[in-house]
Amino acid sequence: MHCPFCRHSDSRVIDSRTSDDGLSIRRRRQCPECGGRFSTIETASLNVIKRSGVIEPFSREKVMSGVRKACQGRPVTEGDLAVLAQTVEEAVRQTGASQIDTNEIGLAILGPLRALDEVAFLRFASVYQAFDSLEDFESAIAGLRADHADQPDRLRAGEAEPTR
Ligand SMILES: [Zn+2]
User: Fold this and answer.
1) Where are the zinc fingers (unnamed) (predicted)?
2) CA 56, 61, 67, 68 torsion: positive or negative?
3) Which range has the worst mean pLDDT, 22-36, 74-88, 103-117, 137-151?
4) Ligand 1 midpoint to CA 23 (Å)
5) pLDDT, averaged across the chain
6) How much distance in Å is there from the Cα of 95 to the middle of ligand 1?
């Protein structure tokens, strides 16, 4: 890494520290040429391609704000949202992709949100999956009911799967 002060082509790591969440490493560096000190932060790159084509770094806060709207008036805490956003990030990172589109994030949100609050799940799914008829709601609700009934055979047959 080039020195930001004198552009010398090398630098020496004098300290490394992993962040509390374990997702990044902060390195303190020193330039052997001018002695200047600077820090770098290393993370596994994960970018989101928005519908507009704009690319930006994955943000748990954006996941939380997207889900927060669907959770209005529901017994869901900020802590619940933070856990959900972390679950989504882990799921997305596990795919090994360095770039994903917002659609895939929406998909990764559906499962954990459903486990968290079914009403919020229906609200989120209705917007995200663009429900445009009562039938869309009915089939999503039928999917939830089927899980409540705890009949794995029916689910496996695909009769009560929620629309995707
Ligand atoms: Zn330097």
Assistant:
1) 3-34
2) negative
3) 137-151
4) 28
5) 88
6) 39
